[in-house]
Design a protein that fits this description.
The protein is of the alpha+beta class. The chain has nine helices and six strands. About 30% of the residues lie in helices and about 10% in strands. It is extended. The chain binds zinc ion. This is Helitron helicase-like domain-containing protein.
């Protein structure tokens, strides 16, 4: 499961110090925090992959880890230009053995100490502060169902060679049987049109007459003209900027 939580403006995580308060990507102290340490060591260490395990599923054809582990040591948390935090992985000389291999802070997947200690399972927690990472996480909601492909080696039937099948796991099956929503999204996320007067997009069929195209295009509202129209007639709407508007009013 992937979940993206939007925080209220006053609670938004904006500084590296705030990131450190919520997310950690290092081994906790086994002496001060033995329960959390055991959880992190058993479920929050990536791989090991690369030279330590050349059969790891995260490796590409060149033997590089698709998840970019082990990460570089970093003395402090920083943000890259796309708003992805580069979490603190300090070099404190501690080395532990996981699956028979040496691992250190560079191999730790970001986690929240409170959640990991409470649930004792793999919960990867990251801070999304830029548009690129928000878009990335939304991909999981919209990419569709999980599929798997079965390949029949040696066969000459091109249809049988690749079978595109659909997999529904037990949790999804149960939710469908009980009629629950498969995903929910709050606040509303919509694409807001932005253009100069008379420069809006019009989709038309090339066989359609010009009069019909002009008539149809003239009668259609975009999110931008809908916003202006709403602000003209509704005093409540005027309190919000165009960007804030979908969170409070319906643009449909
Ligand atoms: Zn890897």
């Amino acid at each position: 499961m992937h979940a993206l939580f939007f925080l209220k403006v006053v609670d938004k995580i904006q500084t590296c110090a705030q990131v450190d308060m919520v997310v950690s990507a290092e081994f906790p102290s086994p002496k001060d925090n033995p329960i959390l340490f055991e959880t992190v060591k058993s479920v929050m260490v990536h791989g090991p992959c690369g030279a330590r395990n050349s059969n790891a599923p995260c490796l590409d054809n060149n033997g590089r880890c698709g998840k970019r582990y082990p990460r570089a040591f970093a003395e402090r948390t920083t943000m890259d230009q796309d708003g992805y935090p580069i979490y603190r992985h300090r070099n404190d000389d501690r080395v532990y053995t996981v699956k028979g291999q040496d691992v250190d802070n560079r191999d730790v997947v970001p986690y929240n100490a409170y959640l990991s200690q409470m649930f004792n399972c793999h919960i990867n927690v990251e801070v999304c502060v830029g548009m690129r990472c928000v878009k990335y996480i939304h991909k999981y909601i919209y990419k569709g169902h999980d599929h798997h492909t079965t390949m029949v080696l040696g066969g000459i039937d091109e249809i049988q060679q690749y079978i595109d099948s659909r997999y529904i796991g037990p949790p999804e099956a149960a939710r469908r049987i009980l009629g629950h929503n498969l995903h929910e999204e709050f606040p509303t996320v919509v694409r807001l049109a932005l253009y100069l007067p008379g420069m809006h997009h019009v989709v038309f069929d090339e066989t359609e007459s010009m009069n019909s195209i002009i008539y149809r295009a003239g009668g259609k509202m975009s999110t931008l003209t809908g916003y202006f129209a709403c602000c003209t007639s509704n005093e409540f709407a005027r309190a919000f900027t165009y960007q804030e508007f979908p969170q409070h009013c319906c643009l449909a």
